[in-house]
Structures are given as structure tokens and as C-alpha cells.
Fold this protein.
Amino acid sequence: MASELTTESYISHHLTNLTCGKTAEGWTCDPYKVDQMGFWAFHVDSLFWSIGLGTLFVFVFRKAISKNSDASVAPSGMQNFVEMSIEFVEDNVQSLFGSVKNTLIAPLALTVFVWILLMNLMDLVPVDFLPVLAGHVAYAIAGDAVEWIKGPESLYFKVVPTTDPNITLGMAFGIFILTIYYSITVKGLKAFVAELTLHPFGKYMIPINFVLEMVNFIAKPISLGLRLFGNLYAGEMIFILIALMLFFSSIPIGVLGFGLHLVWALFHILIVALQAFIFMALTIAYLAMAHETEEH
Amino acid sequence: MNINATLIAQAVVMIVFVAICWRYIYPPILSVMKEREKRISDGLEAAKKADDSLEEAKLAFDKELNQAKAEAADILDKANARASQIVNDAASKAEAEAEKILTSASTTIENETNKAKEELRQQMSDIIIDTTQKILGDEISKEKHEEILKKAAEEL
């Protein structure tokens, strides 16, 4: 029943999320009914990996503490990694945040960094491996019971959560809310509103000021989310295109594809870590801005 | 690539994970790290202190040693001086003694000589008087010619 595999279907298969939502007939994950779901639909694959990797982060870090909470014993193994990450985050918070004391910032930065790093690292798993596995598992378990699963190929499954704009923008949105919260609690509502309305042009141009400042204000979370999404999406896209060389062309080009895959994977490690770091650094920077009372 | 409720779900999930990290993960690890850091710096400080006191002890030891050496040298000098003084004293004493003995010996010799001379003179004059008496008979008496005899004795 599987439709014939073409370049186009292969790419679109890899770029479509497993979406579950409510249609007129009730809840379904049928990929052909995504259009009917509207806003209240969930990318189950993205959320699965996002929550799974977040839990992995919590589990690993929690285990590192319970294993060795005695300061007189030298740390070893995973604890070294955990403490290294924390030191790295502490340094960054220290340099960007300076003297302002806020105990939430460092844990937030740590969570964001490690979590995004883990999600980005899913990009290094060969593009077909997990989707095909998930498809076969789903078909074996629920093939006959669920009407829309017609074969292992009919299940869409995207592995890298950060190639889903919902995930990246969702995190940026969470940080945006925190920014607003701290802007209001630290500076006071009056100072926060004044910041948005009284410059660059002074109090007689409040509407223009507000529009300009609002663009500036909203651009921050959107650019934060889209930057991460864009980088990872492009990386994923190149992996898919390289994978195409293996499946849809002659043997020499397939061999070249193997080489290219290796090269791109090595290069991608840099992007994976760099984007996680940038997201963390900007998170800290935006929250630091929320704590600063600007003088004009 | 639709924007849908996943966004809100992810924001909620993020808040949950951040809260877990904030409450249960970050503070305990950080406190262990801080405590260890403190222990290490304390240990280093203690090591430095021990090093310092070792240095101090070494200095004190050197000082003591030098002092002892100086004292020993001093004692040796003194002993040497004393020994040479004793030797000198003994030598000068012996010299003096020798001188004394020599002097007394020569005095004795002189006395003896004088005595012998006197005796000799006496005997001589006696012999002479005797002889003269014998020759001259009684003409010359000892009493009569006392003066002449004395003169003669003196000339002898």
C-alpha cells in the first residue's frame, strides 16, 4: 500500500511531524487530516523527544548528585561532566549577569543549554534510523487497530525537536514571559512601560516610540527561536539531501555520499554545540537586560 | 511546519524542567562544588603554612648551628690561648727558677770562695806568724805586731 518512494516523498516524509489533534471525528494522528486539526494539534514526535531528552538531563544530573554528594571525595565519571557543565554555565552567567543576584538564571541557563544540546545531538543519528524504526514498531503494534497506519511508511516521525519551530519558539516564548515578569518585578511596571514608550523620541511621540520599541521587544524572542530552528533545520536538510545520494543514484555517488555524510556530521557537531551555547548566552543576556534599569 | 499547540506545550514543558533544575538539581551540585572548592583552597593554604613553618624551622636550625659553631670556635680559641699561656708561664717560671738557682749557686760559690780565701789567709798569716816567731823568737809577738800583721794579711 505504500506509495512509491520518490525523492520528493522522501524529503517531505522527513520534514513532516507526527501530528495528533482533534478533528470533527475526534482525536486522530492521521497525517491526511492535519489540515482539519487547526491550532490545537500537537507534534507528538517533537514533544516525545523533547520531554524524553529533558528527562534524561534531569536523571543524569540528579544521579550525579546522589552518587557523590560528599565534598571530600574527588568527583569522577559523569559527575565531572555535570560539574564541568555547571561551571561553564556559572562562568557565563557571571560574565553576562554581573552583580545581579537571581538564583533562577543559572539553573535556567543550564537547563536550556544541556537540553538544547541533547536535542540538537539527535541530528547526528542517521536520518532514517529512528523514523524507520518507529514506523515498524508502530505498524507491528497498532497496524491493524489504527485505521490510518497502512504500513511502516505511513507514520511520520521527526527525530530532532529543534528542527520544529514550535519547539524553539516555545522555549523562546517561555523566556519571553520570564523577561516580562522580571522587567515588571525588578524595574516596576511604571519603569517598564516608560522604557517601552518614552524613547527614542521623548514623551511627545509616545505612539511611535511604542511601535518601535515593541518591534524591538518582540523581535528578541522570535529571532531567538528562529535562529536555533533555522540552523538545525538547514543541517537536517543537508543530512536528508546527502542521504538521497545513497538511495537514488549510482554506486560511486553513493560512496561519495558516505564521505560527505561523515564530513557534514563532523562539521555539524560544531553547529550543535554552538547553537546551544548561543541560545543559552542570549537567554542570559535578555534576562540581564530585564534586570537593568536603563538611564536615559 | 505549522505553528500549533506544540508551542504552548513546549513552553509548559520547559517551565517544568527549569523548575526541577532550579529546585532539585542546581543548588545541591553547586553547594557540593563550593564546599569542595573551599576544602581544596583550605588544603592548599595548610600546605603553604606547613611549608612556611618548615622554612622557619630550617632558618632557626641554621641559626642555632652557626651559633654553636661560633661558640665552639670561641672555646677552641680560648683553650688555645690558655694552653699557650700555660706553656709560656711554665717556661718563664722555669727560666726564672734556673736563673735563681744559677744566682744562688754563684753566690754560694762566691761565699765559699771568700770563705776559703779568708780561711786561707788566716791560715797563711798564722803560718807566717808561726814561722816568723820561730825564726825571730819571741821578739815578735802577736800582740806587738798586730798592726803589721793585719797589713800583711790584707796584702795577701
